[in-house]
Design a protein that fits this description.
- The protein is of the alpha/beta class.
- The protein has a seven-stranded mixed beta sheet, sandwiched between helices. Strands 1-2-3-4 form a four-stranded antiparallel beta sheet.
- Helix 7 (about 195-205) runs parallel beside helix 13, helix 10 runs antiparallel to helix 11 (about 265-275) and helix 10 packs across helix 12.
- It has two domains: about 5-220 and about 315-345, 3-Layer(aba) Sandwich (Rossmann fold), CATH 3.40.50.150; about 220-305, no CATH class.
- It is built from 13 helices and eleven strands.
- The chain is globular.
Length: about 350
């Protein structure tokens, strides 16, 4: 509960620090943007960030957000659309019952580490619900980016002078290598074109002895039997609006069908898991909530499952192998069914 006063303070503050940086070019963060292709520092000139050596334009600043990607060059835009239609149902500060902070701390084990005064890079922030949790922790700087326009939803709700937002690709992260104390990537890898390459790009940003939290959907016979992988061949080829109307029009009925199957258990539960195209929230633990709120969350998660262009889970052995190869020692890992696979790892001092 100690995080709540800080959260309320952060969320009722203002964003003048970030705005002043954009207007004056006076950097107030210890870690600055660089040209993601060369590592050369950037200068702020007007509404652009330019390479300090060859003077080429690297990013435009639109609505106070540096944009390192071109409009339309965005395989993750279904998430930008999603977070603008489901704005509040994973935000504790805006009334959601989901215990997002508890979930993040349980998965990352961040409470076991000294966070005070440390920097953190969030790779794939989406609409900022996890960012909101990071802002309750005593990091000195939170640098968060996403490929999609969901960063605009985050900017609207999150006002904290420690937060620096950008729109950027995970394959061209606009920060120097080996500079962050913590790097956090939650529910992102599987939605990139090449999850292994994505993970290696993320690993490069962690400093020696720094901490990485990484999460991925898990590839196993049991996980890949889930209904989403039977229908995505169709749902990713139709307008996302169709899927939105599907969950909105039939969500209440679908919830009761799938809940009935799960209560019956046995082969009925197996059938629902394998074939019934609607997600079920287990209304206990971090998802303890009333039926109405649960149904709305189920609609969003179902949309999330059926619309992304990419959904490529990793095996536990793949994730472990990459982390070891990139010079990390795994300190915590979870991969028991039906959990996804996620790990907290420390970068070796010498790599």
């Amino acid at each position: 509960m100690l995080g709540w006063p800080l959260l309320l303070l952060n969320l009722t503050g203002n964003n003048l620090g970030a705005i002043n940086f954009m207007k004056t070019g006076v950097e107030q963060f210890s870690i600055s943007f660089v040209n993601p292709a060369t590592g050369v520092p950037l200068n702020h000139v007007g509404d652009t960030l330019i390479d300090s050596e060859d003077r080429s334009e690297i990013a435009r600043i639109v609505d106070q957000i540096p944009r390192f990607v071109e409009p339309g060059d965005n395989y993750a835009e279904s998430f930008g659309w999603q977070w603008k239609h489901w704005r509040d149902n994973q935000s504790e500060s805006r009334g959601a019952s989901v215990k997002q902070r508890e979930l993040i701390l349980e998965r990352t084990h961040f409470a076991e580490y000294d966070l005070a005064g440390k920097t953190v890079l969030e790779c794939g922030m989406g609409g900022g619900d996890d960012t909101e949790v990071l802002l309750t922790l005593p990091f000195s700087e939170i640098h968060s980016f996403d490929l999609s326009t969901a960063v605009e939803r985050a900017q609207h709700h999150l006002h904290d002078e420690r937060l620096k937002l950008s729109q950027a690709s995970i394959y061209a992260i606009p920060y120097p290598d080996r500079v962050f104390d913590f790097v956090f990537c939650h529910r992102v890898l599987q939605h990139t074109p090449d999850p292994e390459k994505s993970l290696r790009c993320i690993c490069k940003k962690v400093k020696s002895c720094g901490i990485l939290f990484i999460h991925s959907y898990k590839r196993s016979p049991e996980h890949m039997a889930e209904w989403r992988y039977k229908y995505r061949w169709f749902t990713t080829r139709v307008p996302k609006e169709w899927i939105y109307y599907y969950v909105q029009c039939f969500g209440w009925l679908l919830h009761h069908f799938v809940d009935f199957f799960y209560q019956l258990g046995g082969p009925y539960l197996s059938f629902a898991y394998r074939y019934f195209p609607f997600y079920r929230v287990n209304r206990t633990g971090v998802y303890a909530m009333d039926k109405k709120e649960a149904i709305e969350l189920e609609k969003m998660i179902t949309f999330d499952a059926l619309t992304p262009r990419y959904d490529s889970p990793m095996t536990t052995s793949q994730l472990k192998s990459i982390l070891t190869d990139e010079g990390f020692v795994i300190e915590h890992i979870e991969d028991r069914f039906p959990s996804p696979v996620y790990a907290t790892a420390r970068k070796n001092l010498v790599d």
